[in-house]
């Protein structure tokens, strides 16, 4: 029994590292998936990896406020820290999705999303994403509440992705969306439970439930739009969904007195 427990713990640790390597540029090994489906098997750890990013952003925010920088400046630095830690992975997906969905048909949409250049829709999406997140964070009442909001936002933004990966098929046969695989039901359930726990602990019961509900609606709406526009999801779409969830969490936290 003890041997099996050790093996299971080691496997879970490896899955957590897979998620952390994929979602961040932290020095925990090469940012690559060893085998097809490894990312899907690590789905339960998505919100944990997100929380790690949130903690780093929260530390930057706390340091900036300790130096008496204005709240908006501290918020921008915290958002920037998240972008640096993740290598702008999700922001890139948001920009590509915004540009791609402006195409005339499914094939043109997918082709535009493959183009590394950003068009007007992509640039505007990034501007609004950064501005909304920074403004919302600056508006959260209380320094501790702001730190919790950052952790919750990053955890929820990534914690909702396993369900999308399971409910929507990959829109193309190659690329990240197809290579990531489909999480099993247990992985999705664990991701959802861990996500909800982090949100409630970080924000409190009332604010946590409100923010989770709002984020779930927005993320589901983006997923439904992707299904209509391209018939499934891609890696870029998952990035856009993460951005929607993260931004909504911060907006909800700013609107709830804590």
What does this structure look like?
- The mean pLDDT is 91.
- This protein has one domain (43-255).
- The chain has 258 residues and is mainly α.
- The chain contains 13 helices and no strands.
Q: Total helix count?
A: 13
Q: What is Rg?
A: 18 Å
Q: What is the strand tally?
A: 0
Spatial shape: globular
Mean pLDDT: 91
Q: Give the H and E element order.
A: HHHHHHHHHHHHH
Query: How much of the residues is beta strand, in percent?
Result: under 5%
Task: Estimate nothing, just give the exact number of structural domains.
Answer: 1
Helix/strand layout:
Elements: H1 2-23, H2 38-41, H3 46-66, H4 71-86, H5 89-100, H6 106-114, H7 120-139, H8 143-159, H9 161-167, H10 176-180, H11 185-203, H12 205-230, H13 235-255
Helix pairs in contact: 1-3, 3-4, 3-8, 3-11, 4-7, 5-6, 5-7, 5-13, 7-13, 8-11, 8-13, 11-12, 12-13
Protein traits:
13 helices, single chain, 77% helix
Write a brief structural summary:
With 258 residues, this protein is an all-alpha fold.
């Amino acid at each position: 029994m003890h041997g099996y427990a050790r093996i299971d713990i080691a496997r879970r640790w490896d899955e957590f590292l897979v998620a952390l390597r994929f979602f961040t540029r932290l020095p925990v090994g090469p940012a690559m998936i060893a085998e097809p489906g490894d990312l899907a098997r690590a789905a339960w750890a998505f919100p944990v990896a997100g929380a790690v990013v949130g903690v780093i952003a929260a530390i930057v925010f706390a340091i900036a406020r300790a130096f008496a920088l204005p709240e908006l400046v501290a918020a921008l630095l915290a958002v920037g820290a998240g972008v640096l830690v993740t290598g702008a992975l999700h922001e890139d997906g948001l920009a590509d999705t915004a540009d791609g969905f402006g195409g005339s048909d499914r094939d043109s949409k997918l082709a535009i999303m493959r183009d590394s250049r950003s068009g007007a829709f992509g640039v505007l999406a990034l501007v609004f994403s950064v501005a909304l997140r920074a403004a919302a964070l600056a508006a959260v009442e209380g320094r501790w509440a702001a730190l919790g909001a950052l952790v919750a936002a990053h955890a929820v933004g990534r914690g909702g992705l396993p369900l999308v990966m399971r409910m929507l098929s990959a829109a193309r046969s190659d690329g990240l969306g197809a290579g990531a695989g489909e999480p099993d039901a247990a992985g999705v359930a664990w991701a959802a439970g861990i996500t909800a726990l982090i949100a409630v602990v970080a924000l409190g019961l009332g604010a946590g439930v409100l923010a989770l509900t709002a984020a779930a609606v927005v993320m589901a709406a983006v997923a439904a739009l992707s299904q209509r526009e391209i018939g499934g999801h891609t890696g870029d779409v998952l990035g856009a969904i993460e951005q929607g969830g993260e931004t909504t969490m911060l907006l909800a936290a700013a609107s709830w007195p804590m």
